[in-house]
Amino acid sequence: MNFCCWRLIFTLVILEAICSYLGAAAQATNGSVDLNLDTSGINPNGTVSPTSNEVLAATISTGIVSATKSPNESVDTSSLHPNGTVSPTTNEVLNTTISPAFESGSSATEAAVTLATNKFPAVEVSPQKAAEPADCSQREKYRIQPIAKDSSRLRKCCPHGENLDIYRENQSDSMCDSAVVNFEPTIITAVLFDNCIEDLEIPTALSYEIGNPCNSSLQYDDQEDAFFVLQDGSLLIIDKFGNESYTVEQNYCLDVDKSGNLFAFTCVTQVEEQIAFAKVIFVAVLMLISMPCLLLVSYLHMTLRLLRNLHGLSLSLMSLCLASGYFVHSVVHIYGISNTGFIGYVIQFFILGYFFWYFCICFNVLLNVWYKLPCCIQLTKFWAAFNFACYCILAFTGPATIVAMTVQKGLPGMPSYFLQGLTESIRDSQRYFIPPVSTVLFLSFLINIISFFGFQRINGYVKAEGTDLCRNNERFDQQKYEDVKKDAKCVSLLGIIMVISWLLEIVTFYSGSKSNYLLLCDMVNGLQGVWVLLIFLVVRRRRTIILRWWYDRGSHEIGGTELQSLSKNNNPT
């Protein structure tokens, strides 16, 4: 009995020593893992029953508890969440501890499980709220992202070097004037997420596209709204009042007013095409029909020696310019090619060249009837070539200058065919096509009137003085006079058709209706090549010269009398 008592006392002493050692170790490390055990299965002799070791519901990571915490802080393991965080609602002390002991070099690992008879100082961890991400990486990315392309453009309302002058509720009433403030919008490269925008801070530059594509529009002011241009040329509009929402607009235009405020106009309704695609194809086919007629006129006046004078060469280049412009214009609309940029300027150059060459033809008639015929001047080949070179300079530098001004302003070069000036910006885009053509036609009309009085003057001299009109002992060239008179009649007839066609084109462009008569106006324009063929090869009765060239083609031998007649009629002027 005494032996059992001494054995119990010895066991208690050992337990007290072990508990003191474990308490000191817990205070020194403050990083041990404390687990709860079910104590209902512990036997009186201090051993643990195998059936009482139940698995804990929560696992505590050893990194949750910080080693810098004070020893008097405690952890409540009853409120641990499965993710390892500690709930701060309770602060209880663990009464049961599992202390694993490992023996190195042994084939098995034994765990000594003891009961703590005192309360251990535990560690208490304050809850830390998870910080929100600094970027948009945890948000869903939009499926359609802005991607910069070669065709990406920033749309400016007014031409280069101009600002908004008057703006109203509807941008179609806006006016542009000379620039006072530089236009420098903010262009960003961004990635779009759900209610989140990530700016990549990559410098981006975009070319400008001039004009407003809207029939009616909404107006945004940078004083009240925030908007930026994305790398693909679209407009990013951000809600400045904390909703974190934004919209992306593809149809818009930007510009600044005289005070430097930046305005954005987004479309409520788009500008619709003047005519449907089927009608566009129909008029384009008419242009393609005119093209071989114009090429035939150009070829005959360059090839036939009797037609290759100043008038014939000018008429040939006039027809060639219109044929080239019609061909490119029709191909662009039939195949849906973008008409902005270089190809639009090419079409503008050729169509303007057609009207400038007509002006040169009218001026050549005026020069003959007021100077060459009354003074009985016969130009040599050198002076005839110099005269033609002057016509070329005028007919090519005029359109080239206008196209250069169009490029400098950033306006599209596409002529007004198939367009309808529904907005101020569309009407403004034709400032270097409609006004120049109208001016050239008006000047040509005045020249034709002056030429008419010149013919009346010559007829009066001929009736009064017979054929002795010249005062330099030169005989008046009656045959040349008749040829110039026929040329003047053809040029005047073509001028009437051109003026009527142009008036119909202006009606088509400035009309806001969608009536079918607008298609008739475009059809008259598309058939101008046919009119040129009929006037200069049929009405002029050139059939004899053309048929003679067609049947002979150099094989016909010309006699002396016929040679003298042809030489007399072969005048380069």
From TrEMBL:
Signal sequence interval, chain numbering: 1-19
Q: Which UniProt keywords apply?
A: Cell membrane, Disulfide bond, G-protein coupled receptor, Glycoprotein, Membrane, Receptor, Signal, Transducer, Transmembrane, Transmembrane helix
- What are the subcellular locations of this protein? Cell membrane
Does Transmembrane appear among the keywords?
yes
Map out region (Disordered) in residue numbers. 68-90
Where does it primarily localize? membrane
Gene from which this protein is expressed: mthl14
The family assignment reads: Belongs to the G-protein coupled receptor 2 family. Mth subfamily.
Q: How does it sit in the membrane?
A: Multi-pass membrane protein
- Tell me the protein's name: Probable G-protein coupled receptor Mth-like 14
Gene Ontology cellular component annotations, sorted alphabetically: plasma membrane
Any keyword Lipid biosynthesis? no
Q: Which organism is it from?
A: Drosophila kikkawai (Fruit fly)
GO MF assignments: G protein-coupled receptor activity
Matching entries from Gene3D superfamilies are given as: Methuselah ectodomain, domain 2, Rhodopsin 7-helix transmembrane proteins
Mark the transmembrane ranges: 276-300, 312-336, 342-370, 382-407, 432-455, 490-511, 517-539
